[in-house]
Amino acid sequence: MSLSSSLLSKLRLVTVDVTGTLIAYRGQLGDYYCMAAKSAGMPCPDYTRVHQGFKLAYADMSRRHPCFGHAAAMPTAEWWKVCVRDSFARAGYEYDDDTFERIFRRIYATFGSSAPYTVFPDAHRFLRWLRRRGLAVGIVSNAEYRYRDVVLPALGLNQGSEWDFGVFSGVAGVEKPDPRIYEAALEAAGGVAPAEALHIGDSLRKDYDPARGLGMHALLLDRFRTAEAESWRRSGVPVLPDLVAAREWLDAGDAKDKEEAEHVTAR
Question: Pfam families from the entry (predicted)?
């Protein structure tokens, strides 16, 4: 895998995706929906059916009211209430209003906490390493305000120690793969030029392509050995297994750059 030897020395900003890059879900989403239904005294729905129902409901809500209802000034809780109810309905489960309200309150509270998430063990160290190098670190995520205000801090990923600023779709009103979310990050970092920024994510469509299209550097993580990753590699995309490898990737270029500089000086 090649790397421009001077990339690290040219960077002023690194932007990072969240889910799949810094954190992951504990278990399946359907598990949490099922537990919420059981807590309300209802039979446990089929985990897989609810999970599939959620994916369809979420995609539909994202089309009708993107960025968690930002343009329609829809409250975040209301957006999720419609999505969760539709998730159960698509899985074949209907509840009366009082029962659904109890189920929804538990689901909404759960996903507004650290409970369903886990931090990858290399995340804190990598982000702090970047900041020690004098680089600005920005979060770029298709997420609503609770990621910024509650979830990330509860996981120990704090603004000021692990990251400097965040651009969250539910707050900014623009979401990946729209390149404007990356433009917003460059602006938030003080007007950094695209060529001075690197984006790290786990999606070719949402992370790599829009960042590169804007002129940023980019690389992808393949933490779960997905089938698509091999085709990404064949097309020339830098694909790494984790943030430890990402640091080595950046360090290798930096070390080569210093070695070449020392060689020129010695002549």
Answer: Hydrolase
